[in-house]
């Protein structure tokens, strides 16, 4: 496939890998596509540059059959797959995906006739599930049609959900950041309870994932205490695990420094049953996930389940406003206000894809909603464009989302008081890959002085949050 095109260029993808060691060799790294190991040609081998594993997209492009074009003059790579068109320019960290500017963790580079681009970024934009097994040094790519529930991954822990996510090129914690981080001093599992010792207040984000069944606990703004490795298994890449044999519901507890910026410790319980447990966090230094408590998984109680997705977060600021504010902060503020309103709704259950400044990947966000069989998915964003563009837009991808888009847009226009820029169809990862009606709301333009002045006010955010909840209720017939 596409071998002629490939003569022009070799792609290599970024894959952040050994954030602690920086320049570890990646010679033993393998790539599996839908469970099949890719044979890498001599000039398509995985590389590691500055702590990021670079993998040969050329191989993936050939295997996946994407259409690739390389314009030498402008140093632009165009990658097309079905209705997604991605333009990447060497040394520019902003990509154009279907005309929308998206920030990449690192800019594509030209290294001796080879264009290198970020793997996770490309994979997710193209709807692939991308994961990394740090122990096996293996990248797993799963196409939407090719996945069979994660069983294709050889070895243990192939889901990669505790690996350091690609895209983080930082080596270790930034100077000056250390003081603000909570230290995870210990993790233990006994009496069917997970216990996490921390030295500062932490607000965990708990969610479940299926196939295989897991409970994931993200601890934002945390790191492992310096003394942690003396008491617990922790390898040089800040990954470790505890085998659980005495409690039949859990097979393993895995933990890792999941992200460097913001520093996030992730703990994953590999479950033998579908269960989430109750989180007990009294900010007394001990966070407990109690599996003895029968807390049903959201949506399994007959209520309608809504997933609210605050766009971007963590290392991904989203758009930057004319006054230097970050889109991710607007998205989260509105999302938390929506949460407060949804708590009052007796017939609606909800799950947030993030409730603090963290960055779940696009495929994580989709997976949360799909695994839970959510009834609705609503992603909250703000837009950027020319200085004169102003107003609100509602995006959807699949036709079954149109009715939801129309209802949500009606309330978005009314509650924001901004110009109606219409309901629009676009291939966006989160609205395309979700399996339930899904929309992405652009609640105004951060690049517009007038819109921007409103978006960060409590009043505007309160009104938009109320509008979103009204839209949800109308669509679900819960008025
Ligand atoms: Zn956005």
Characterise the protein shown here.
With 479 residues, this protein is an alpha+beta fold. The protein has helices at 3-6, 57-64, 119-125, 228-231, 327-342, 362-371, 402-416, 429-433, 449-455, 458-476; strands at 10-16, 30-33, 36-37, 47-49, 52-55, 67-71, 76-81, 84-89, 94-97, 100-103, 109-111, 114-118, 129-133, 138-142, 182-190, 193-198, 205-209, 214-220, 222-224, 239-243, 250-260, 263-271, 278-281, 286-290, 304-310, 348-352, 376-383, 392-396, 420-425, 438-445. The protein has 3 domains: 3-142, Copper Amine Oxidase, Chain A, domain 1, CATH 3.30.457; 178-290, Immunoglobulin-like; 304-476, Aminopeptidase, CATH 3.40.630. It is built from 10 helices and 30 strands. Helix 7 (402-416) runs antiparallel to helix 10. The structure holds zinc ion. Residues 311-312, 318-319, 327, 381 line the site of zinc ion. Zinc ion binds next to loops.
């Amino acid at each position: 496939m596409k071998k002629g095109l490939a003569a022009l260029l070799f792609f290599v993808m970024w894959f952040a890998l050994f954030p602690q060691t920086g320049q570890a060799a990646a010679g033993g790294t393998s790539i599996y596509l839908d469970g099949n190991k890719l044979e890498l040609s001599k000039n398509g081998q995985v590389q590691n540059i500055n702590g990021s594993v670079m993998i040969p997209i050329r191989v993936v492009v050939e295997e996946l059959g994407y259409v690739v074009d390389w314009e030498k003059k402008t140093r632009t790579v165009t990658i097309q797959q079905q209705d997604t068109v991605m333009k990447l320019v060497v040394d520019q960290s902003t990509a154009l995906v279907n005309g929308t500017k998206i920030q990449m963790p690192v800019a594509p580079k030209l290294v001796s006739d080879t264009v290198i681009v970020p793997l996770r970024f490309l994979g997710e934009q193209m709807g692939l599930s991308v994961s990394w097994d740090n122990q096996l040094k293996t990248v797993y790519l799963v196409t939407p049609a090719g996945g069979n529930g994660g069983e294709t991954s050889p070895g243990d822990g192939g889901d990669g959900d505790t690996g350091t996510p690609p895209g983080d090129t930082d080596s270790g914690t930034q100077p000056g950041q250390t003081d603000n981080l909570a230290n995870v001093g210990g993790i233990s599992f006994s009496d069917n309870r997970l216990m996490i010792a921390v030295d500062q207040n932490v607000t965990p984000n708990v969610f479940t994932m299926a196939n295989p069944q897991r409970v994931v606990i993200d601890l934002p703004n945390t790191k492992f205490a310096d003394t942690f490795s003396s008491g617990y298994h922790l390898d040089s890449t800040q990954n470790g695990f505890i085998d659980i044999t005495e409690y039949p519901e859990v097979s393993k507890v895995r933990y890792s420094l999941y992200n460097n910026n913001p520093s996030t410790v992730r703990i994953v319980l590999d479950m033998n049953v579908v269960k989430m447990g109750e989180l007990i966090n009294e900010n007394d230094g001990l966070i407990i996930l109690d599996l003895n408590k029968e807390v049903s998984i959201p949506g399994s109680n007959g209520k309608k389940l809504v997933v609210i997705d605050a766009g971007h977060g963590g290392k991904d600021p989203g758009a930057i406003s004319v006054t230097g504010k970050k889109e991710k902060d607007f998205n989260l503020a509105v999302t938390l206000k929506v949460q407060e309103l949804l708590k009052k709704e007796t017939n609606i259950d909800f799950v947030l894809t993030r409730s603090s400044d963290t960055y779940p990947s696009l495929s994580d966000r989709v997976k949360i909603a799909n695994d839970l069989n959510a009834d609705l998915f609503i992603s909250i964003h703000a837009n950027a464009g020319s200085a004169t563009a102003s107003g609100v837009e509602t995006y959807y991808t699949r036709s079954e989302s149109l009715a939801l888009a129309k209802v949500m847009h009606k309330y978005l226009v009314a509650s924001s008081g901004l110009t109606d820029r219409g309901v629009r169809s676009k291939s966006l990862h989160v609205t395309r890959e979700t399996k339930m009606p899904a929309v992405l709301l652009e609640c105004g333009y951060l690049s517009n002085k007038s819109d921007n002045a409103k978006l960060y006010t409590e009043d505007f955010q309160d009104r938009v949050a109320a509008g979103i909840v009204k839209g949800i209720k109308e669509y679900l017939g819960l008025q």
